[in-house]
Amino acid sequence: MKMVIALFACSAGFALSAPLPQEAWRDLNVRYTIFSGYTLSDRDAPTATDRKLAILVDGPAAEEIFDSIGPDMPSSCSQEKGDRDRQKQGVQCNYTARRAAKGYECWIGLDLRTGKSIPTASC
């Protein structure tokens, strides 16, 4: 019986110290568009057979995503000194040095027909 109580107390202690799932979630303000075509630069109206979702994230959330998908790509779309690009499959981020603290933007792309991650932004 003492062993059961000890195990319960130990389990309760771990449960109280672990963050609850909802505490790990943060607010996120995004903009999105649903389109057809290969990328946003050549987008058309969505069709029955071609529907893609592009989500634009900026601010602190974009900075956190940018930091998470490093390293920088060898060359940047921009030729401006200090600008940086990073990409992992359908997650593309850039940092614009002249905008400093507000310089982070990320695009997240999904093909809504297949569920696959896709790049949506181009240089």
Automatic annotation (TrEMBL):
Residues 1-17 form the signal peptide. Keywords: Signal. Residues 69-90 are annotated as: Disordered. This is Uncharacterized protein. It comes from Pseudoduganella umbonata. The lineage of its organism: Bacteria, Pseudomonadati, Pseudomonadota, Betaproteobacteria, Burkholderiales.
